[in-house]
Design brief:
The structure is a single chain. This protein is mainly β and 587 residues long. Strands 2, 4, 5, 8, 9 and 10 form a 6-stranded mixed sheet that branches.
C-alpha cells in the first residue's frame, strides 16, 4: 500500500547516465518525426470535437417589457468555454461558469417590447452544434415590489473578504429580470441565483470597517420599487446573539453571541443604568474559548460572581472542538467585566454538544442539556466550587426527544426540560425531575405533553406555574406545579406570535413575555395570580429574529437579543406590563 504521507511529493532526481540516454532517444525520435530530407511533417492537431449542448432551465424565464439590462442564468449540459448564448437569435456576451451553467448579459434593448424569445446555446466546430430552445417571455404590465427574507451570510469579519467569498446571497420574493441588490442604497453587481435568490458581488471596501449595512433589492420600472431592508453586520468577531442573562443584582447584562465566518463564540458585556434601563458596553466582547459558532445559552450564578456559557459545537463533527464546551468566567464586581477561568470541554458521550444550561438558586449545582448526532440526550449534572466557580461532573440523567431548554424552580427543588419530538411535527414533551438538595442529583418524576417544537421553558417566581413557548404551534403551554411533588398539570395554551422562541416571567410574577422569532415581536401577557392563566396584553416590535429575553430583577426593564439584526432591544415596563422601546444597542 502506498504511504499516504508521500502523496504529492516530487519524484527524486534521476541519475546523470539515465538522463543522457533520454537525450539520445529524444534526438532519434525527433529525427523520425521531421525526417532527414525535408519530408512532410506530421500533424500535431489532436483537438477533440465539441459536444452538442442541451438546456434544462433558464432563470429568470420572463421579464416585463421595458426592463433594465439583467443577467440570464442558463442551466444544462455539455457547455464549453467557447459556448455562446443566443437570445431571440442574437449572440450575447456569454460567461462560462462550468459545463452545466452559463450566464449571459441581456441588454435592455432585447426586452423593450413584448413577445417570446428563444434561448439557445451553440458550441462551435469541430463537432458542436446548437442546443434545444427554451422560450423567454417578455410581457406587458409592471414589475412587482420585491421583498427579502434572508441574507447568506448576514455578517463578515472586518477586512476578511473570505467571510463572504465576494458574494452575498439574497433570498426573497418578487424578484424580476434586472433586480439589483443595493448596499446602503448603492447598486452592486447582481446575478440571478435561482430558487428566489440573487447573488451580489461585495467588494473589500464594503467590509473594511465595523458597522451595519442596509441591504435592499430594487426592481426597475415599469412598476417595481425598493424592498424592505435587512442588516448586514461587519464585525470584529461577535455576531448572531442567541441568549441574554444578567447578574442577580441587575447591574450587568451578558449576551452570548455566535462568531462570524467560524470565528468562534463571544460574550458581549454591558452595564445597566438603574434609572433609565439603558445598556452601555463594558468593552470588546470576550471569547468563549471554545467552539462557539453554534452558541447555546448563558447563565449567571446567583451570588453574582460567575457566568457560564455553553457552546453547542458542530453536530456534524466537521470542525475542531466539535463536541462543544462550557466556558466559565468570573465577574468583576465593580466593572462587570468577565475574566475567563477555563471551561469544561465537550466529550462524547458525556458533555456532548451542550445547549441549554441553568444554575440552581443555591448556586451549588448546574444542569446542562447535552447530546445529539447519534449520542443519547441527557442532562449533565455538576457541582459548583463556591470560591472559583469550577464545575465538577456528578453524572447525567437521560431525557427523551430532542431537549432544547432547561429551567429550575425558585426553591431549587425541581428541574424541567422542554424537548422536541424526534418525529417532525408531533407534540413535544416536558421532562420533570426532583433535585437532591444535598448532592444535586436529579430523579425523574415523569413527563407531560407540550406543543409542537417547544423552544423554551420558564418557571414563575412563586414556583406555582410553568410556561413553555412552542415554536412550531405558535403558542404557549401553561401548567400548574404541585408544590410537594413538582408534577406539572396542563391548564391549556394561549396564542403567541410566529415562531415563539423564548419565554420569561417578571420577578413579581405578574407578567410573562415571549419573543417571536419569525414575526419579529414580543407577545406580552398578564398572569392570573390564582390560576397562572395568561391573558394577552398585546405585542411590541423587536429587532430581526429575536432569540432571547431577560427581565431586570427590579421588574422595570426588559431586554431582547435579536439574532439577525445583531443587537439588543431595550424596553421599559409600565404598571400594566406593557413594554415600551427605549432604544437598541449593538453587540
Amino acid at each position: 500500500m502506498q504511504n499516504l504521507r508521500t502523496v504529492g511529493r516530487s519524484r527524486p532526481t534521476r541519475r546523470a547516465g539515465f538522463q543522457s540516454q533520454t537525450i539520445v532517444l529524444l534526438v532519434v525520435a525527433l529525427i523520425g518525426v521531421w525526417g532527414c530530407g525535408g519530408g512532410t511533417s506530421q500533424s500535431v492537431d489532436n483537438q477533440s470535437p465539441s459536444p452538442t449542448p442541451t438546456i434544462s432551465a433558464i432563470s429568470p424565464n420572463s421579464a416585463v417589457a421595458g426592463n433594465a439590462a439583467f443577467t440570464l442564468t442558463i442551466s444544462g449540459t455539455n457547455f464549453v468555454a467557447a459556448s455562446t448564448v443566443y437570445f431571440g437569435g442574437a449572440a450575447l456576451a456569454t460567461t462560462f461558469v462550468d459545463s452545466t451553467q452559463l450566464t449571459a448579459a441581456i441588454p435592455a434593448s432585447s426586452v423593450a417590447s413584448t413577445g417570446m424569445l428563444a434561448v439557445t446555446v451553440t458550441n462551435a466546430a469541430p463537432g458542436g452544434g446548437t442546443s434545444n430552445a427554451i422560450n423567454f417571455s417578455v410581457t406587458g404590465g409592471s414589475n412587482p415590489v420585491p421583498t427579502i427574507s434572508s441574507l447568506s451570510p448576514n455578517c463578515a469579519l472586518v477586512g476578511e473578504q473570505s467571510s463572504v467569498s465576494n458574494q452575498l446571497t439574497v433570498v426573497g420574493q418578487n424578484f424580476a429580470a434586472g433586480s439589483v441588490v443595493r448596499w446602503n442604497g448603492s447598486d452592486r453587481p447582481t446575478s440571478n441565483g435561482g430558487n428566489d435568490g440573487l447573488i451580489a458581488q461585495i467588494s473589500a471596501s464594503d467590509i473594511a470597517a465595523a458597522g451595519t449595512a442596509a441591504v435592499t433589492v430594487f426592481n426597475s420600472a415599469p412598476g417595481g420599487g425598493s424592498s424592505n431592508s435587512l442588516p448586514f453586520t461587519v464585525t470584529t468577531g461577535a455576531a448572531d446573539p442567541q441568549s441574554i442573562a444578567m447578574d442577580p443584582a441587575g447591574k450587568f447584562a451578558y449576551v452570548l453571541d455566535g462568531g462570524c465566518d467560524g470565528a468562534g463564540g463571544y460574550v458581549s458585556m454591558y452595564t445597566i443604568n438603574s434609572t433609565t434601563g439603558a445598556l452601555a458596553s463594558i468593552g470588546p466582547p470576550v471569547s468563549t474559548n471554545g467552539f462557539g459558532v453554534y452558541p447555546g445559552s448563558i447563565a449567571a450564578e446567583p451570588s453574582g460572581k460567575f457566568v457560564y456559557a455553553t457552546n453547542e459545537g458542530d453536530p456534524w463533527g466537521y470542525e475542531e472542538g466539535s463536541n462543544g464546551s462550557v466556558a466559565m468566567y468570573t465577574i468583576n464586581a465593580t466593572t462587570g467585566a468577565l475574566t475567563s477561568t477555563g471551561g469544561v470541554n465537550g466529550n462524547c458521550p458525556g458533555l456532548c454538544l451542550p445547549s441549554s444550561m441553568v444554575v440552581d438558586p443555591s448556586g451549588k449545582f448546574a444542569y446542562v442539556v447535552t447530546g445529539g448526532a447519534g449520542i443519547p440526550f441527557n442532562v449533565a449534572m455538576y457541582t459548583i466550587e463556591a470560591s472559583t466557580g469550577a464545575l465538577t461532573s456528578t453524572g447525567a440523567i437521560a431525557t427523551g426527544g430532542v431537549p432544547v431548554s432547561v429551567a429550575v424552580d425558585p426553591a431549587g427543588k425541581f428541574v424541567y426540560v422542554a424537548a422536541q419530538n424526534i418525529t417532525p411535527g408531533l407534540a413535544g414533551t416536558v421532562f420533570m425531575y426532583t433535585i437532591n438538595t444535598t448532592t444535586g442529583a436529579l430523579a425523574s418524576i415523569g413527563t407531560i405533553a407540550a406543543g409542537t417544537y417547544p423552544a423554551s421553558v420558564a418557571v414563575d417566581p412563586s414556583g406555582k406555574f410553568a410556561y413553555v413557548a412552542n415554536f412550531g404551534s405558535n403558542d404557549v403551554s401553561m401548567y400548574t406545579i404541585d408544590g410537594a411533588t413538582g408534577a406539572l398539570t396542563s391548564t391549556g395554551t394561549i396564542a403567541a406570535g410566529t415562531g415563539p422562541a423564548s419565554v420569561a416571567v417578571d420577578p413579581a410574577g405578574r407578567f410573562a413575555y415571549v419573543t417571536n422569532f419569525e414575526s419579529n415581536d414580543v407577545s406580552m401577557y398578564s398572569i392570573d395570580a390564582t390560576t397562572g392563566a395568561l391573558t394577552s396584553i398585546g405585542t411590541v416590535a423587536a429587532g430581526s429574529n429575536p432569540a432571547s429575553i431577560a427581565i431586570r430583577p427590579s421588574g422595570k426593564f426588559a431586554y431582547v437579543a435579536n439574532s439577525a439584526s445583531n443587537d439588543v432591544s431595550m424596553y421599559s415596563i409600565d404598571a400594566t406590563g406593557a413594554l415600551t422601546l427605549i432604544g437598541t444597542i449593538g453587540i
